[in-house]
C-alpha cells in the first residue's frame, strides 16, 4: 500500500513537471513521447544530462531529436543537485569514448557466446542420461544467455545489438527483449530508488531495508535469509507469466514468435535425443528454476544490501552509492557473473562493452575520491556476507520493532483496564 501511494505521488510530480534539463537547457517534454519507452519520465523536473549521455552518447538521431524540442525559461524549482557531478561525468564519458572503450569486442563476445551455445547443446544431447545434472547445466547456460542479452540490450555490440539480444533472450531463453529493456533501463535511470527501481519490488517475500520490511509478514522476515536463494527458483516462474503477458498486451508478435520457436526447439530437441516426458519436464523445469537462482544471486550481490537513494540523486551518486564491486580485477569472476562483479563501472557507463569495464576502474575510483563518495569493492565472500546478513538483520530489526510496538500497546491496554 505504501509503495502504491509513493508511485501515485511520483506520477503526480511527473504530470506537474513536464520538463527536464539537458546540457544546461530546460527542455519542454510535455508533448514528447520517447520512442524507447517512458524512461524520460524519471527525470521530469530535474537534470537529465548524464542519463542522456549514458544512453544516447552514440546516437546522432537522439541528439537531433533533443535539439528539436522547445526550450523553456530556467526553472527555479529544479531540486538542488551538485552540477559539478554532471560536468565531471560529461568529461569522463567523452574521455572513455575518445580512448575507444565503447568500440565493440566481437571476438571476445562471440567466443563467450559460442561456449554458452555449446553448453546448451550438450545439456540437451545428454539429457536422457542425467536429467537433473543436464538441467543444472542448461540453467547455467540460460543464465549466461541472460548476461549475453544484457550486452545486446545495452547496445554494446553496435548495429547487431538488438538482433543479438533477441537471439539470446527470445529464442534461446524464451523471454522478451522489450520487457527487459523497459524494466532494466529504469533500473539504471533510478538505481535503488524506492517506487522507481522495479528490481526492488521483492515484497511481500523479502526486504533489505526498513521501508520495504513494513510490507513483509512476520513469517517471511523470520526466514528470508534462508529462503531467499531457493525462492529465486520459484520467483522466475512468476516472471515467466509476466513477460509473456507483456509481449501479448504490447502486441510484440515478433517476440511471441521467438518464444514459440524457443519451445518448439527445446521440445523437439529433448524428444529427438530420447527423453521421456518425465525426463524432458525434469530437465526444463530444473533449468528454468536454476537460472533464476543463478541470475538473482549475482544481481543481488551488487545491489540489494546497499543504501536506497532519493529520486534526485545524480548519476554519479547513484552509481557509487547504489552499487558494489566484488573481485573487480578478476576476468574469471567477470565471466562467471556476466560482469556483474564490476557493477559500479557498468552503472557509470552502461553501454560500454563488459570486457572493457575493468579498464575504467581507476577512473571511477578517482571520481569517487574527488567527490567524497563511497567506492565499495570487496571480495566475493564479503559480498555474499553483505547480502545475506543484510536480509537477516533487516528481518531481525523489523521483528524486534513490531514486538516493542505490541508490548507497548499491551501495556497501554493493561493500564486502561486497571483504571
TrEMBL record:
| Compartments where located | Membrane
Q: Which UniProt keywords apply?
A: Lipid metabolism, Membrane, Oxidoreductase, Transmembrane, Transmembrane helix
Q: Which InterPro entries match?
A: Cyt_B5-like_heme/steroid-bd, Cyt_B5-like_heme/steroid_sf, FA_desaturase_dom, Fatty_acid_desaturase
Keyword Mitochondrion (UniProt)? no
Membrane topology recorded in Swiss-Prot or TrEMBL: Multi-pass membrane protein
Q: Which Pfam families match?
A: Cyt-b5 (PF00173), FA_desaturase (PF00487)
Database matches in Gene3D superfamilies: Cytochrome b5-like heme/steroid binding domain
Sorted alphabetically, the Gene Ontology cellular component annotations on this record are:
membrane
Q: Which SUPFAM superfamilies match?
A: Cytochrome b5-like heme/steroid binding domain (SSF55856)
Domain Cytochrome b5 heme-binding, chain residue ranges per copy:
6-66
Q: Which GO terms describe its molecular function?
A: oxidoreductase activity, acting on paired donors, with oxidation of a pair of donors resulting in the reduction of molecular oxygen to two molecules of water
Membrane-crossing ranges are: 112-138, 225-246, 252-271, 283-306
Query: What Gene Ontology terms for biological process does this UniProt record contain?
Result: lipid metabolic process
Annotated family = Belongs to the fatty acid desaturase type 1 family.
Q: Report the PANTHER family cross-referenced here.
A: DELTA(5) FATTY ACID DESATURASE FAT-4, FATTY ACID DESATURASE 2
Record protein name field = Delta-5 delta-6 fatty acid
**Species, as recorded:** Chrysochromulina tobinii
Amino acid at each position: 500500500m505504501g509503495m502504491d501511494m509513493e508511485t501515485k505521488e511520483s506520477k503526480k510530480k511527473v504530470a506537474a513537471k513536464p520538463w527536464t534539463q539537458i546540457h544546461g537547457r530546460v527542455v519542454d517534454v510535455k508533448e514528447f513521447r520517447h520512442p524507447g519507452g517512458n524512461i524520460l519520465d524519471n527525470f521530469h523536473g530535474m537534470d537529465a544530462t548524464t542519463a542522456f549521455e549514458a544512453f544516447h552518447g552514440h546516437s546522432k538521431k537522439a541528439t537531433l531529436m533533443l535539439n528539436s524540442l522547445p526550450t523553456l525559461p530556467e526553472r527555479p524549482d529544479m531540486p538542488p543537485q551538485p552540477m559539478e557531478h554532471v560536468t565531471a561525468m560529461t568529461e569522463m564519458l567523452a574521455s572513455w569514448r575518445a580512448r575507444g572503450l565503447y568500440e565493440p569486442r566481437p571476438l571476445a563476445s562471440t567466443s563467450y557466446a559460442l561456449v554458452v551455445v555449446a553448453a546448451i547443446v550438450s545439456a540437451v544431447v545428454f539429457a536422457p542420461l542425467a536429467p537433473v545434472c543436464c538441467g543444472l547445466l542448461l540453467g547455467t547456460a540460460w543464465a549466461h544467455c541472460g548476461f549475453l542479452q544484457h550486452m545486446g540490450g545495452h547496445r554494446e555490440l553496435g548495429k547487431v545489438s538488438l538482433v543479438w539480444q533477441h537471439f539470446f533472450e527470445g529464442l534461446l531463453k524464451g523471454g522478451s527483449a522489450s520487457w527487459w529493456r523497459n524494466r532494466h533501463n529504469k533500473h539504471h535511470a533510478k538505481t535503488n530508488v524506492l517506487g522507481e527501481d522495479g528490481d526492488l519490488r521483492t515484497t511481500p517475500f523479502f526486504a533489505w531495508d526498513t521501508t520495504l520490511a513494513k510490507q513483509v509478514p512476520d513469517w517471511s522476515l523470520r526466514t528470508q535469509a534462508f529462503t531467499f536463494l531457493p525462492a529465486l527458483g520459484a520467483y522466475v516462474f512468476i516472471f515467466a507469466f509476466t513477460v509473456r503477458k507483456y509481449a501479448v498486451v504490447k502486441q510484440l508478435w515478433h517476440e511471441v514468435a521467438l518464444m514459440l520457436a524457443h519451445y518448439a526447439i527445446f521440445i523437439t530437441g529433448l524428444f529427438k535425443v530420447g527423453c521421456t516426458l518425465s525426463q524432458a519436464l525434469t530437465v526444463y523445469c530444473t533449468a528454468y528454476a536454476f537460472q533464476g537462482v543463478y541470475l538473482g544471486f549475482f544481481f543481488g550481490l551488487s545491489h540489494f544490501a546497499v543504501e536506497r537513494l532519493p529520486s534526485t540523486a545524480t548519476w554519479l551518486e547513484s552509481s557509487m552509492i547504489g552499487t558494489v564491486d566484488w573481485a573487480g580485477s578478476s576476468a574469471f569472476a567477470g565471466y562467471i557473473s556476466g560482469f556483474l562483479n564490476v557493477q559500479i563501472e557498468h552503472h557509470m557507463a552502461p553501454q560500454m562493452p563488459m570486457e572493457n569495464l575493468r579498464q575504467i576502474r581507476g577512473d571511477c575510483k578517482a571520481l569517487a575520491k574527488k567527490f567524497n563518495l563511497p567506492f565499495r569493492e570487496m571480495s566475493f565472500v564479503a559480498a555474499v556476507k553483505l547480502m545475506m546478513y543484510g536480509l537477516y538483520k533487516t528481518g531481525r530489526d523489523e521483528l524486534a520493532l513490531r514486538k516493542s510496538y505490541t508490548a507497548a500497546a499491551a501495556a497501554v491496554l493493561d493500564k486502561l483496564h486497571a483504571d
